[in-house]
Design a protein that fits this description.
275 residues, alpha/beta, pyruvate-formate lyase- activating enzyme, 2 domains, six-stranded parallel beta sheet, four-stranded parallel beta sheet, 31% helix
Length: 275
Amino acid sequence: MKTIRVFPTKTKATPDDKDVRINVTPSFFDEADEVHISVAFTWDLPRAEWLYNQWLKAGFNVKIGGVATGERGGDFINGMYLKKGYTITSRGCNNHCWFCSVPKREGKLRELPIVDGFNILDDNFLACCEQHKNAVYEMLKRQPEQPRFTGGLEAKILTHTDAEKLFDIKPKSLYFAYDTKDDYEPLIEAGKLLTNIGFSKAGNVLKCYVLIGYPADTFDAAEKRLINTIKAGFMPMAMFYRDNNGKRSKDWGKFQRVWANKKIVGAKMKQYGIY
């Protein structure tokens, strides 16, 4: 069955095969059994609904879905809604962070059949059982590119065993998360554990998403968290909080761009003695 996938917005993870369309209406040459409108961001929903109607009016069998719609994800299909190389081996999370839609959409963590890929996007990979994690580590060893964990790892549940196995697979990047105040002490401990295992603070493998710009946040407080992340041994990556409308101020946008620029952050890491 031929399926055209339509995405309102293109990201690094968007598939790029011949049956992908980015924010366009149907052309005279388009043929498909189904058209899937895939929506990753809530602020893209109005555009996605408009695209849905345009493809429907053209006579296509159209469906709309994606995380922004609140749709619960199924088993991962390689290359369908994410570029090949990305994979999801589990969905859901047992935490209930105030800013996160995952527990509402996906429910408690559940493990999926493992599909080959080198970039793990699981909601909370470290919360999986040992058997599942070990199978994923083995899968990653046979991939053509170095493993990346860009879905975000939870420092609170990092074990010595996981640290050793992560080191063994020689990852290109491990992203942790510093979203709330109680994330910081575990992040410090994770940094110590990982460097004691053999990871270098100067190797830019250890990275950390830092949530900024949420209600009542300030530039001074956000900068302090980002600097503390450096001191814990991680390269920070500022992640701007957005509500369902996706709005943010220009000042916060400028601040986030500075702290998401690898060259600028690298210079700040030198400043604080990481290199």
